[in-house]
Amino acid sequence: METNIREIRDVVKTLYLAVKPEIDDFGIVVHPIIPNQVIPKRCNGETIWLDIEKDYDEIKNIYFDIIDNSDLWRLMILIDKPWKLTFFKYVNQYLNPKDYAKILKSCWTEEENPNQDCNVSTSEAVKFFKKAKKNLIMDEDELEHYNQFEDDVVVYRGVTEGHERLGLSWTDNKEKAEWFRDRFEHLGKSGYLLQAKIKKKDILCYLNCRDEQEVVVDIKKLKDIQEVDFYE
């Protein structure tokens, strides 16, 4: 199977049209594709306003032209971070196995909080990872780390206020889990630490491309989940 770039471009266009762009109170554009830091301007410096229908059509035509001339990786870059998994959800059927694994990895690690994506449930995410070939989604170092796991693995998850308790993202490193527990402490948000056990065969992959030492697991296979305290 070859990656079908034509179908993927059509998906990106559909995603573009499916969400009406808005500008929040800080002047940031909220939309899957339109840059969220820059409001487009014409070559004469005149601002293109998104709330004017003719200008919205002008922006659409600009981006559709970009989409039509983009390869797979540029299309993925066009998608704003909160929408990465949504993009993958609708394009994965058009990807060859190698692209499937690499795009899933990029979308999962680039989205800020993939465990709470409103368009992709955790059960869907588990299915995505189960379909990915381990030797394609992990690089050489990650695969080596995964291969060193014993049959039974102890994993940890640092959870901060407002975040999903039982996501796919765990780690075999206590200190890394503590960092995730405490990372919003300066904002007055409390956290707690979870510990669980899982069979190696139920670990979907090990990812460390962002130095997060992430053990991606099948949530339903976790055992002996408990809160632990490593403040000492």
Describe the secondary structure blueprint for this structure.
Layout: H1 5-18, E1 22-23, E2 29-30, H2 53-68, H3 72-78, H4 84-91, H5 97-110, H6 122-131, H7 134-137, H8 140-147, E3 152-160, E4 169-171, H9 174-182, E5 191-199, E6 203-207, E7 214-217, E8 223-228
Antiparallel strand pairs: 1-2, 3-5, 4-7, 5-8, 6-7
Description:
- This protein has 232 residues and is an alpha+beta fold.
- The protein has 9 helices and 8 strands.
- A hairpin with a 5-residue loop joins strand 1 (22-23) and strand 2.
- The radius of gyration is 20 Å and the shape is globular.
* Shape call: globular
Structural category: alpha+beta
Unreliably modeled segments: none
In sequence order, what are the helices and strands, one letter per element? HEEHHHHHHHEEHEEEE
- As a whole number of angstroms, the C-alpha radius of gyration is 20 Å
Distance between the termini: 54 Å
Please report which band the strand proportion falls in: under 5%, 5-15%, 15-25%, 25-35%, 35-45% or over 45%. Answer: 15-25%
Question: What does the main sheet amount to?
Answer: 3 strands, antiparallel
Mean pLDDT: 89
How many distinct beta strands? 8
Strand order of the largest sheet: 3-5-8
Q: Would you summarize the structure shown here?
A:
The chain is α+β, with helices and mostly antiparallel strands. It has helices at 5-18, 53-68, 72-78, 84-91, 97-110, 122-131, 134-137, 140-147, 174-182; strands spanning 22-23, 29-30, 152-160, 169-171, 191-199, 203-207, 214-217, 223-228.
